[in-house]
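Section 3.1 - Work completed
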Amino acid sequence: MTHTQDITRPSKDLVAGILAVGAATASSTLAHMGIRNCHILGPLPQQRGKAIAGPALTLQFMPKREDMYGDGEYADPEKQLHRHVLYHVQAGDIVVVDARSDMTSGVFGDMMSTYFKGRGGAGMIVDGVLRDRPNLDKLEIPLWTLGWTPNFHTQTNLMPFAVNIPIACGGVTVMPGDIIVADDDGAVCVPVALAQQVIEQSSTHHEWEDFSRMKLKEGAPLQRYYPLHEDAREEYNQWRKLNPLPDHHG
């Protein structure tokens, strides 16, 4: 029997806060905090307008070695480790896959993805490709991938190797349980220990950004309003009194 470990999930409030921040602001905020490499490079959104955040369930692929991974997986489907990451899925989880940027092996297809959707998964980030696109499009699962293939997961170069371990996805170290935020700009990995600080710092940035955007649309000087110059701070404060922040500003 194959056993894989579950993850420790961050609080739902923390995840919601990171979702409100968005990928671009999370990336820039982390960069200012010294975490320069947080953008999962390569996987692109397959549907426009989708935005998700959630804890990472990780799946690692390795180059296929037939003596380690042969036909036995079909005699015993439980040997297929890519199934096991899905067994851990809870509502809001994101499956993050190190598929070595391989373009030949479809990590998941229709049936596995249907199971993922049924368990309430929020989306998938795959440094590789998927298969069965027509059916996956119908499922409307938010997906960030390198593309698509007709091949199944071990047909060519890859074999699933480990579940819920540290992985490298798109050049970024992803720890099980890290918060992933993904939208039209791409996918970003937020270390759980830094998530609250990211939320706090980015909210300070957002407080004046709406004001600056309004002024720039009016043709006001970029030098004064982005970033907000100290000389414009009192002007902003007066505007904010007339336009108070909502309870959850994103």
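Second construct:
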Amino acid sequence: MLRHFPCRDVAYPHKKRDYFIAAFTFFCVAVCLISDASASMEKQNALGVSGWVFLIGLLLGENKEVRVQVIIAVIFATIGEHFASPFMGGYTYRFGNVPAYVPPGHGMVYLTAVALARSGLFLRYAREITGLVIGVCGLWSLWGISGLAEQGDAVGAMLFCVFLVYLFKGRSPMVYLAAFFITTWLELIGTAVGTWHWAPIDPVLGWPQGNPPSGVAAWYCLVDAVAIGGAPVLINGFKNGQVWLKALKAQKAAYQGTGND
């Protein structure tokens, strides 16, 4: 079950850039969500502009594959936000919209998951971190369905099971582990300060859900999986398109040369 986990007893290097990306994003998430708790629409838009500037700046030091992954994550997550929030009503932002900082925020969150996943800390202590995450999220999920919690959370327990499938069957378990930390951070802050709130009853399943659901990281794992799986396809498609265009230009040039003769 751990075949996609990093090998034990390997001196994985620590790169300052990975930890900087993570620390910077954790800080920005806290500042942005707390600021938005009482912000006007104009301030929301300003936070969105800042988010794009920060995201582009962080991507300058990444390779093509990671950049494409981030682009896919932003597009997929933004579509999901509009479907799940304004359309379905699974959770609702203060103004009933999708704030301008959310799309670049998803990009920064995804990049943080990638950075932590490749960091020496996560690679060296993968199994210990896995045990911590399963223990914390598992207890959180049990609390939600125990009847002791003020708001039931059957959806969270279900999502926790989905998260476990991603973790042990997916090809990028370290990214999913890292996603748990950054997404739990943003969900706890965002719901605590009232930037958004989750519906007590899930509009699709009709099950009670927490604010936030305990296994909410599973939704972000879906974004990560789509980004990781879609990037090679998009890159190869772009390369094939370039080859086809070059061949078409060469064929056209040869045809024109033949006509001139």
